[in-house]
Specification:
The chain is of the alpha/beta class. It contains 12 helices and 12 strands.
């Protein structure tokens, strides 16, 4: 079926194409009566505006891209939904792209977003290297990092206080009387993992007494961890600190005895689950809305760097 054009609406209403264009864009030179007729006719005919034409006129596409590592992780799903709601309120549509925590896929996602003329990008970066961030800076497209940051590149970001997150997770384990803990972490190239481990280590040094921990680092969060999990299950641990709730649930699927678990993200706040374990968290709404706020300020021309660190707390089991 042929797409409805401005010319089709103009012919139906008996006016010029220019009049239709001005009416649909609420220009003051068109009477309210004519606007009402044209808008009603456009709606009845199934007209959808051409975003490319709008971009050429205004320089804005009214779209942003959100690029994350794993959209199947409920943590990202919650954040994306909150971002979409906040963007919609500002008249924006959101494109979501997945990287599978792979640098090359991230590069392709960034290129795809830029090719669609998005006005800005919210990115949870892979962090294998800084190449993609350097490319993004050169592109000139406004962007905000979410959840992770780089030490050696200054960018806009909103992250959690991950050092405190690690500390309070370890504190919860130690004060519960656990003495033999396994830490299941992402690779240290991920800033949140590195900062949490600093917090965990600081806590064990300060209040650990005779408690100790072993560390397992999983370089590919989206990969299969069965061998590592089986090794952990046979390690005789009484407790575990997992990088996120998904890893905690994976560990539980291998266990046939109870151990104390603390993880991060608290997806149970939005997705009720039969398993209960403590999880370090912050307001996902606040993180999403702050990311949108920073991005739209950048889209509006603000060149000042904005770097936000949100406080964290531990949820009840």
């Amino acid at each position: 079926m042929k797409r409805v054009t401005l010319a089709d609406i103009a012919k139906k209403c008996g006016v010029s194409v220019n009049t239709v264009s001005h009416a649909l864009n609420d220009k003051p030179d068109i009477s309210e009566k004519t606007k009402e007729l044209i808008k009603k006719t456009a709606n009845e005919m199934g007209y959808i505006g051409n975003s490319s034409a709008s971009f050429l006129r205004s320089g804005l596409s009214k779209t942003i891209a959100v690029i994350v590592g794993d959209i199947s992780n409920p943590h990202f799903a919650i954040l994306i939904k909150e971002i979409e709601v906040a963007a919609r309120e500002k008249g924006y549509a959101v494109f979501v792209l997945n990287t599978d925590e792979n640098e090359q896929q991230e590069y392709k996602a960034i290129c795809a977003a830029i090719s669609k003329n998005v006005d800005g990008i919210i990115l949870c970066p892979v962090q294998e290297s800084t190449k993609n961030i350097e490319f993004l800076i050169k592109s000139g497209v406004p962007f905000t990092l979410m959840g992770r940051r780089f030490k050696n590149i200054n960018t806009n970001y909103v992250v959690l206080d991950d050092e405190n997150s690690g500390y309070i997770a370890a504190e919860h384990i130690i004060k519960s009387g656990m003495r033999n803990t396994v830490i299941i972490s992402a690779g240290l190239d991920i800033s949140s993992a590195e900062e949490r481990l600093i917090g965990i280590d600081n806590c064990y040094k300060e209040i650990g007494n005779h408690a100790n921990f072993d560390l397992y680092m999983l370089s590919n969060l989206a990969g299969e961890h069965s061998k590592v999990m089986e090794k952990i299950v046979n390690g005789g641990y009484d407790s575990a600190i997992c990088f996120n709730d998904i890893l905690a649930l994976e560990l539980l699927s291998y266990l046939d005895t109870d151990i104390k678990i603390v993880s991060f993200d608290n997806i149970r706040s939005r997705f009720p689950m039969p398993y209960k374990f403590a999880s370090v968290t912050s307001s996902k709404t606040k993180m999403s809305h702050k990311a949108i706020e920073i991005l739209f300020n950048a889209i509006g021309g603000n060149r000042e760097l904005v770097q936000v660190v949100l406080p964290t707390r531990i949820s009840n089991e």
